Structures are given as C-alpha cells and as structure tokens.
TrEMBL record, chain A:
Residues 298-658 form the Penicillin-binding protein transpeptidase domain. Residues 682-730 are annotated as: Disordered. It comes from Streptomyces omiyaensis. Its main location: membrane. This is Penicillin-binding protein 2.
UniProtKB/TrEMBL annotation, chain B:
Keywords: Cell shape, Membrane, Transmembrane, Transmembrane helix. The keyword Membrane applies. The lineage of its organism: Bacteria, Bacillati, Actinomycetota, Actinomycetes, Kitasatosporales. It is a multi-pass membrane protein. It catalyses: [GlcNAc-(1->4)-Mur2Ac(oyl-L-Ala-gamma-D-Glu-L-Lys-D-Ala-D-Ala)](n)-di-trans,octa-cis-undecaprenyl diphosphate + beta-D-GlcNAc-(1->4)-Mur2Ac(oyl-L-Ala-gamma-D-Glu-L-Lys-D-Ala-D-Ala)-di-trans,octa-cis-undecaprenyl diphosphate = [GlcNAc-(1->4)-Mur2Ac(oyl-L-Ala-gamma-D-Glu-L-Lys-D-Ala-D-Ala)](n+1)-di-trans,octa-cis-undecaprenyl diphosphate + di-trans,octa-cis-undecaprenyl diphosphate + H(+). InterPro entries: Cell_cycle_FtsW-rel_CS, FtsW/RodA, RodA/MrdB. Pfam families: FTSW_RODA_SPOVE. This is peptidoglycan glycosyltransferase. The gene is rodA. The keyword Transmembrane helix applies. Its main location: membrane.
Length: 730, 399
C-alpha cells in the first residue's frame, strides 16, 4: 500500500499505457498511409474505374455510305426496314421483368412469346442462341421484318408497350443494277469480332459491338470511309443500371459515299458475256483430252488504259452478295466456302493465277530488244525447235520462215521466242549463271510488274510467280525433301519428275528458259497484272495501279475527295519498241493474225483494236484460254480456266463487250446512241445541294442488241465473222 | 475505499450560484475534456452528412424521405450527447456500484436476442426489434459492461492499496465474466463484436498491470482459438467468404468481393479533394452496399477526398490521444482501466472499420464510431465519452 506512487499507478502500468498509445497511433498511421496510397498514388486509376462503372453508352449506328458506279448508280446501298426493338433497362424495371409486355408484343408480331423473350436475353456461356451479345443498354432488335401495320399498333399504344420501339433502320443491300452483281469486287460485311474491338479500342476509329465490318472487296478497302461514326449517348447509371442522367454525347456521322470507276452497265455486259462464254465452251470437246471443256472458272477485266481505272471486273463462279445480309446462314456459308463450291468468293481477276501462255510474248519481245536484238530483224519461225533429243513445236508444227518480232506476235510463233530465250540462257552461262548474267527475260517480266501486286485497291491480291534462278533455288529448298521421298527413277511420270526435281530442281534448265519465253512452265500471272501491262503498252508505257475507288464524297456532299490515278512504274523499253509492239498486236486482229477470225468487220480504221491470244498449258488440266486486248481507251483481258484457246473461248465475249462499249453491231456498224461508254467516264456524278446523288436509269444488258439491225443497213451486211478457222490454236 | 469512491460533482462547488459554478476555475465545464467532446461532436455531424448523402437516393430504405436518415442520425447524436451528460452527472464511480446490475441486464438482453424477440440483419442474429422503426443491438452496450465489470474487479484491491497489481484469481474471475457474454454473442454469430471485445479485454488487462503471462496467454489463446474455430468449421460460409474476399476480391466478385472492390473504387476515385458532397457517382449510384453503416467511410473517401477522410482520421486521433492522456493522468486504477478499455475499443473498431473500407482488413459488420448510422452504436460510444469525461472531471486537482 505504501508503495503506491502519487499518480496511483505503478511503472508497469505507466509503460503499458505508453505501449497502448504507440499501438493506437501506428494503427491510425497505417490507415493514413493506405488512404494516401488509394487516393493520391492510384487515384487516377480508380477514378477511371469508377467512370466505367457509372457510364453506359447507347449507340446509334451510323448509316453506311453507298457505293456508286461511275455514273451514280448504286451498287451497294441501304434499304430501310422496320425494326422492333426492346429496351432491357425499361423492361427490367417492371415487376414481372417485362413479361406481360413481351407477351403482348409477341401477339402483335405473330411470334411465340418465348422466342421474343429469348431474343432479348443476354448471352453468357450457359445461354444457347438466340441471345443478345451486345450492350444491355442498347435497344435489342426483336425483328427487322415488321410490317407497317405492326409498327403502327406498337406506336399508337405506347402505354401497352413501354420500352418497345418500332423504327426504320438502315440495312445494307446490294441491288445489282442492270443485273450487275459485282459480287467479288464489292465484297461483303460481317459483324465485328471481339478481337477487332480490342485492337481498335484506342485508335481514332474504334469499333462498336453493333458494327458491321467490310470483309472483302471495296467494302473492306474503304471500310473506314464507308462506316462513318456511330452516335454515342452516354448515360450515368446506378448500380442497378437505372439511368440517373445524361453526360457528354457524340453525334454520329453518316458514312461517306464511294464513287467507283465501275460502270454498272458494262459490268452487267462483262458478267453476262463471261458466263455465256464459259457456258458455250463447255459444249465443245477438247481435242487433247477428248472431254468437254470444264471451264471451271474465269475472269474478265475492263480497264481504262490511261488511268488504270477498272470499268468492269467479273469473276466466275459468282454469288449473290445479298446472302450476307442479316447474318449468313450456315447453309449459305457452306455453299460459298466448301470444296464443291469452287470458291465463288474468290475474285479471279486479282486472285486467279495461271501461266500466261502466248499473251506473255510482248514481254519476251521486249526482253529480246533489251538484250540487243532488233525488233524488226528477221527471226526464223521454224516448224519446231530442237533441244538435244527434245523437240519444241510450233502450233500444228506450222512454220512461217524468217519474220520480224511483230509478225511473231501476229502468228504467235513459238519457235522465234524459243530460240531467243534459249540463246539468252546460254549467254548467261546456262545452268551455272555467269557473274554478269543479265537474265533479260526474267528481269523484264519483273520490270513489267509480274511477280508482284499491281496495287489495286482490293484486298488480298495475289502476286503470281516469275520462276527465275532465285525462285528455282528457293522452291527446291522448300520442296526437295518431299520430292526426294516421292521420286523414283524410271517410275511413273510423276515419280520420274519428282526424281529429277530432287536431284537438280534448283537448276534453271534450258527447257525452263525455252518454256518461259512463251509464258509456259512455272510462270503464273493474274488477269489484273496482264491488263495493267497491256494498258501500259496502249498508253505509251505507264504501269498504273488499277483502281476501283474513284472519289469519296462526304454525306452532305460538300467534300469530294477524288482518288487520283497512281502509277507504279514505266515499261522498261523505249517509245519505239512500244510502237513496234503496238503495231504487232494490231496485226493480230488483221488478216492472218490469230484473233482475226474473231474480229471480222471490226472498224479497225475508226477504233484500232490490238489483241494477243494465249493458250496456256497446265499439267493435268485442260488449257487455259487468254485473250488480252486494247483500244486507245480501254483494255480488256479475259481468261477461262480449262476453256481451250484464247480466241476460241474468249474471243466472242471480248468482242461483245467492246461492241457494247462502242455501240457496234456484229457487222461493225457504230450507233453512238447505243454505245454504253465510247469514251471513259471522266466526270463524277453530280451531287445535289442536299448531298444526294441522282441515279440514272439503267437497263439490263440485252445480248440481242448487237445483232445487225436490218433497218440500219444500206447495203448487204458483211459476214459477221471472217470465216471460221479450222481449230486455231494460239 | 469509501472516501475515494463517493465523490460527487456537487462536492466541488457547494456554495456557489449555477452560472458561477459552471464557469469557476474548478467547475465541471472547465474540467471537461473539450477536445474529445468537440471531436466526437464533429465526427457525429460529419457522419450525419455522409449518412445523408449515402441514403438520400435509397428510396427502398428511406421510404421516399431523403432527410430520414439525416434526422435519425442527428437524433441519435442528440440522445448520445444526453447519455454522455447523464453519465458525467452520475459519475463513473457511482456507476461502479451499479456494475453488477448492468452486467446482469446485459446478459439478459443478449440472451433475449437469441429468443424469438431477436432479429437477423446481415447474417447476424444480433438485434432486438423494439418497434416504431427502432431496433437495439445489445452487443454494443456489452462492450461498456465488460470494461466496467473488469475494471471494477481488477482495480478494487489495487485502488484500496491492498496490492500493487491484480492477483491471478481476480484476473481469472474477470476473464470468466467477460467470456460469458462473448460466448453468447458468438452464437448469434456477431464475430465483429467478439473481435472488438477480445481487444478490449486485452487493453483492460494491459492497463490493469496484470501479469505479462496473462496478457501473452490471452494473445496466444486468441490465435489458437481462431485456428480451432476455422479448423472445426464453426464459422458460417459467409464469414469465411468475407474473410477471404478482402485479400482477393476476385474470389467472390459478385458477393463480398464486390463490396470491397466497389468500396475501394469509391475511395480511390475521390483523389485529393473528392467529388464534393452529394457528387460522388459511386455513392449516388449506390454501388457500395451498406454505405450508411459499415461502409460510410467510402462516402467520405469519394466525396470529401483525401483531405476530408484524412480529417476524420485526425478527429479520431484527437479522441484517442486525449483518451490515452486521461488514462495516464487519472490517479486511480479504476479510471485508468476504463479509459484504456475505451481506447482499445475505439482504436480497434475504427481501425477494423476503416481498414475494411480501404481493403486491408477483412469485412466484419462493425460501425465506425460516431460516423456510421446506427442508434445502439451511437449511444454506446457517447456513454463511453461520458465515462472518459467523468474520469477527467472527478480526478483530484493536482495543486
């Protein structure tokens, strides 16, 4: 008792009180530190998180811009459909989660109530389709095929249908004006993927979940311009998603209009004539295989020679692009992509490749000139060319004696080019290249733009192939293992080839260079590459990037951004050689030329026509037909896989397209009133003050229009054809 | 013993007028600890604003009256202040005599909770519905009772001068008396309150000067008990979930994890100055559940920012610092123990509450003293303030 100090506490208690105090204040300090960490150090991060917590966006999709042809005819536009949508946020506020409203709605729309409920339920891993995988704050479409009567019923009794809207909404449509589907050139749309949304999140054109994205063709190339910008209204919401207010909103911008250089009328003719030519040739028997021609695929390109603008581009087989609208069905998708479909989604104009055959000879002739040969010297067009024990023959082993390179083009003489190709190969050192080997034939092919893209404004263009020494080496390295495994000395033809390839497939052999000189062997080209080359010969040597897009016009019509023609190079030969080539190609349609029989009655003095035929051999298949032609303004290149000869299969179709362009009948009489496009379309369609563009009327192509009209004839009509040749090959 | 314990306020001013008595140098008003009083008052008033902000949009709670919780909180504060005055007027020494009665009453009340009179709120069967919208949470008052009953027993022999430190027998008796209501509350189960009570018992034992062995033993058995309880699966799943989710909100993102995550977002988004009262999106959007009670600190974090919520910490610091001073300066062990018990209570409860708001402590249903909405808690903490004031007022003047 006496030990108790004045304060009433022992030192033990005193110390412990200090300990308590220290403990208490370290707890408070801990809290203060953590508070600083959350609010000051990481405050920004949490503020962002709070924002995404509280803000919900409602998106009004932008109307996608139209795609017009050169005169303003819509190739792709939008149609308005009556879309009935339900707002989940409104429905969920109701006591029965909107069940009564949805049941009433199902009654009006003639649907089953559970179908309506299923359409607006949110997708998650357990929910089977149909379900809504967009934002729950977005009005969810129940049907896009409502009738006006249904829409009126809903609109007139809003009190019975709270949260339900019936509105006109724009839906993509491909109207195929004048039956011109333009399917592969236009491409198609499909819904944006999660991956794309994430990828484009921080760019200046982010995707919205409801967006449709161009997947192919110009829909893809010009996707950004066509898509516009969706309007976004931002709502502040509480934890239950109830809207508390509206914050900053972005008004939408409609997509721009794309004017293309396609002329729907010419496109219609091209599509019809291509399909027709393929149909016709399927009735003919191939002399070599003894079967009817397969004509499995084909393409035709109509291009302006002085700009590279594509006037028409048709590819067979084709399809109706409207199958993509509203989501493609599994059945339709299979019919477009399965093995049996023969891939109608491919645009063979830019994605189909084959050996060029004789239309390659303009390149060989140019290569010879570059190698120092005179274009107008005489070269022996013998019946066949011998290489050791092998003999390379002319067509039907016909010789023409000593002729110029121009005549070699006219008669499509192989042996002249065999000899030139072989000589150059020997000069370069043969199998083992000299240090200073020129490889003129291969270099010239590359300089003409082969082996690389033309740069057309369509996606996924293929490059073709120039089988030069480097390619041979690389190809052999990639394949030698397989060849060596498969090869067998003295085995079947394929085994023997594989055996030889295994041993020396990396070598550029004499017969390789001989084949290459006439566009055979491993060389591959695309129709658009050949169109670019023939257009360049026509225009004096400029290799234009082919283009489909011509101008982008803002939705109000005030800004017109014209897409100027772009060139990617010049032909590697002088003006004189180009004139010589031109003359030679001109003689091809004149008497004696390989295409003459297809151009009987053509007004050669008024509209000079140049052409080169080609028949390319493909191992195991029937020959590929090529026909490359041009006038001063247009070049047309057509090819049919397994279609026979160039002039035979493609001749009439190409001529018919020219007839339609220039308003000619079969006899060569011109009627400009009937001419679709006697001169390239230089002006853009007129834009009205309100930003709309009038679409001129368009009629489907009538193939009979080119028959000779007796009322227009004064004298006796010349025969439509200059006489049927006996099985011409070229 | 009797000479020391029978002080009364009036004894200090026997012959003066009322005003003079209140203003005299040795008057009650002069001797009150004003920093504690003003801080507690400030916390309660700030609390009323935060509770108001959190509830004005919650029509399902306030039945369409946005001021309902504001008025109720102010009313609770008023009643709390009145209880404080009453406590000071009675004096903690007078109350010492009533401790056995209070203890008995407490036991009866918490037992009543387990009868059909009790109600379950948020998984804890810890409430007695009184009627008229009022309900009582007896465990709040049990905290005071435990402090008082332990202080009475532990201090009696020491204050009488019979011994320096409480003997083992007394300590053991104390622990049994404290364990009885804690055991009952554990059955509710109101784990949060039991945790606070364990800390109170620790604080009381420390301040009483009881042997180190008791203190360490208690800490050890606390840990062992926690392990045992978990191992034997005595905890409900919601309690385990709550515990786990504070460490990893992703564990239960739509349940407890959602709570802690939303709380953290609310506080973090406040930044330095906050969004301003009523301007917090997380608060007005009602993203944080239980925001007027357990998570009231998130309103301060979001709307008042680091400055405002730091000020709340500062006010709590003032209360605790002054309470520690009272514990150290009073001459009798009884007052020291009561004050230290209250310090342990306030400090731990505030730390646990704010800590769970900040995501560094597991979620347990504990209100923030003075600030959170809730009558029982408000009354209890103000009675505690009354006890602190009484200890200070009745401490002999050091001349």
């Amino acid at each position: 008792m006496t030990n108790i100090p004045e304060t009433g506490r022992t030192p033990r208690v005193q110390t412990r009180l200090v300990v308590i105090q220290i403990l208490v204040f370290s707890l408070l300090l801990t809290l203060g530190g953590r508070l600083w960490y959350l609010q000051i150090r990481n405050g920004k991060e949490y503020a962002d998180e709070a924002k995404s917590n509280n803000i919900q966006q409602v998106v009004t999709p932008a109307v996608r811009g139209s795609i017009l042809d050169a005169r303003g005819v819509p190739l792709a536009d939008n149609e308005t459909r009556l879309v009935v949508s339900a707002s989940r946020t409104e429905l969920m506020k109701m006591k029965d989660d909107g069940e009564a409203v949805l049941t009433r709605l199902a009654g009006v729309l003639g649907m089953k109530p559970e179908d309506v409920v299923n359409k607006i339920r949110l997708c998650d891993s357990k929910t089977p389709k149909p379900c809504w995988n967009g934002s729950p704050y977005q009005p969810i479409p129940v049907t896009d095929e409502a009738t006006v009567q249904q829409a009126l019923t809903i609109r007139e009794s809003t009190e019975d249908f709270p949260g339900i809207t019936a509105e006109l909404t724009a839906v993509r449509r491909y109207p195929a004006p004048g039956k011109a589907r333009t399917a592969q050139v236009l491409g198609y749309l499909s819904p944006v993927t999660d991956e794309e949304i994430t990828k484009a999140k921080d760019t200046d054109s982010p995707f919205l979940r409801s967006d449709q994205v161009g997947r192919s063709g110009i829909e893809r190339t010009y996707d950004k311009e066509l898509r516009g910008k969706a309007g976004v209204t931002r709502y502040e919401v509480d934890n239950l998603g109830r809207v508390m207010g509206q914050t900053k909103s972005d008004p939408g911008v409609a997509g721009s209009t794309l004017v293309t250089s396609i002329d729907a009328r010419v496109q219609g003719v091209a599509e019809y004539e291509l399909a027709q030519a393929m149909k016709a040739v399927r009735n003919e028997t191939d002399k070599i295989t003894g079967r009817k021609y397969e004509a499995d695929s084909g393409a035709v390109v109509v291009m302006e020679t002085k700009t590279g603008r594509v006037v028409a581009m048709a590819s067979q087989p084709d399809y109706d692009p409207n199958v993509w609208i509203g989501g493609i069905s599994a059945k339709d998708y299979a019919s477009l992509t399965s093995k049996n479909s023969n891939y109608p989604l491919l645009n063979r104009g830019i994605q189909g490749q084959a050996p060029a055959g004789s239309i390659f000879k303009v390149i060989s002739a140019s290569a010879a000139v570059r190698a120092g040969y005179d274009f107008n010297d005489k070269y022996n067009c013998s019946a066949s060319y011998s290489l050791g024990s092998r003999s390379f023959a002319n067509f039907e082993s016909q010789g023409h004696g000593p002729i110029t390179l121009g005549d070699a083009l006219k008669y499509s003489c192989n042996t002249v080019f065999y000899a030139l190709g072989h000589k150059e190969w020997q000069k370069d050192g043969g199998i083992t290249a000299n240090k200073d080997s020129k490889d003129w034939f291969y270099v010239t092919a590359r300089d003409f733009g082969l082996g690389s893209e033309t740069g057309i404004d369509l996606p996924n263009e293929v490059k073709g192939r120039i089988p030069d020494r480097q390619w041979k080496q690389a190809f052999w390295e990639a394949n030698k293992d397989a060849w060596c495994k498969q090869g067998k000395k003295g085995g079947s033809y394929v085994e023997q080839i594989a055996y030889e390839n295994c041993l020396e497939g990396n070598q550029l052999k004499a017969y390789d260079s001989i084949n290459f000189a006439i566009g055979q062997g491993d060389v591959l080209v695309t129709p658009i590459q050949m169109a670019t080359i023939y257009a360049a010969i026509s225009n004096g040597g400029t290799l234009y990037d082919p283009s489909v897009g011509k101008a982008v016009i803002s939705p109000d019509g005030k800004q017109v951004h014209e897409i100027a023609p772009k060139a990617h190079g010049k032909l590697p030969v002088g003006a004189r050689t180009i004139r010589d080539l031109d003359k030679g190609l001109r003689s091809v349609v004149e008497p004696g030329g390989t295409a003459a029989w297809r151009f009987g009655g053509w007004p050669q003095d008024k509209i000079p026509m140049r052409a080169k035929t080609g028949t390319a051999q493909v191992y195991g298949k029937q020959t590929t037909s090529w026909l490359a032609t041009y006038t001063d303004d247009f070049t047309i290149v057509m090819t049919i896989s397994q279609g026979g000869t160039g002039s035979g299969a493609s001749g009439p179709a190409v001529r018919n397209i020219y007839d339609a362009l220039y308003g000619l009948d079969d006899a060569g009489n011109q009627n400009l009133k009937r001419a679709l496009l006697p001169k390239p379309q230089t002006t853009l369609p007129k834009v009205n003050a309100d930003g709309t563009i009038d679409s001129p009327a368009i009629k489907a192509y009538d193939p009979k229009s080119q028959l000779v009209d007796p009322t227009e004839q004064n004298g006796a009509a010349p025969p439509p054809l200059a006489g049927t040749p006996a099985n011409r090959r070229d | 013993m009797t000479t020391r314990t029978n002080f009364s306020v009036s004894r200090y001013a026997p012959e003066r007028g009322a005003v003079a008595r209140l203003t005299a140098r040795d008057s009650v008003l002069r001797r009150l600890d004003w920093p504690i009083l003003l801080s507690a008052l400030a916390l309660s008033l700030i609390g009323s604003l935060l509770v108001w902000s959190a509830t004005r949009g919650r029509t399902e709670l306030n039945n369409g009256d946005p001021y309902y919780f504001l008025f109720r909180h102010l009313l609770n504060t008023g009643i709390g202040v009145a209880l404080m005055i009453g406590t000071v007027w009675l004096g903690h020494r007078t109350l010492r005599g009533a401790v056995p009665v209070l203890y008995g009453l407490s036991i009866v009340l918490i037992l009543a909770v387990l009868t059909p009179l009790g109600a379950t709120i948020n998984g804890a069967h810890a409430w007695i519905v009184v009627g008229g919208g009022f309900s009582l949470q007896p465990s709040e008052f049990v905290k005071i009772t435990i402090i008082l009953v332990m202080a009475m027993l532990l201090a009696s022999k020491v204050d009488a001068g019979d011994q320096l430190h409480p003997d083992h027998g007394t300590v053991a008796k104390c622990l049994v008396l404290a364990a009885l209501p804690m055991g009952i509350i554990m059955l509710m189960p109101d784990l949060g309150s039991v945790m606070v009570m364990i800390v109170i018992v620790l604080g009381v034992l420390l301040a009483s000067g009881a042997s180190n062995r008791w203190v360490l033993g208690l800490i050890f058995s606390g840990i062992a008990g926690a392990v045992l309880v978990t191992a034997l699966g005595m905890l409900d799943e919601y309690q385990i979930n709550r515990f786990a989710a504070f460490a990893n909100p992703d564990l239960d993102p739509s349940g407890v994890g959602y709570n802690t995550n939303q709380a953290r977002i609310a506080i973090g988004s406040g930044g330095l100055y906050g969004a301003g009262l009523f301007n917090g999106h997380q608060t007005s959007g009602q993203f944080v559940p239980e925001q007027q009670t357990d998570f009231v600190f998130t309103v301060a974090g979001e709307e008042l920012g680091f400055v405002g919520s730091g000020f709340i910490l500062l006010l709590l610091g003032v209360v605790l610092w002054r309470a520690c001073r009272i514990a150290r300066e009073t001459t009798e062990l009884y007052g020291t123990i009561v004050a230290a018990g209250i310090v342990a209570w306030f400090a731990f409860q505030a730390f646990e509450n704010i800590g769970m708001n900040l995501g560094i402590m597991p979620v347990a249903g504990l209100p923030l003293p003075f600030v959170s909405y809730g009558g029982s808690s408000m009354f209890a903490v103000w009675v505690a303030v009354g006890l602190l004031q009484s200890i200070r007022v009745q401490r002999p003047m050091t001349a």
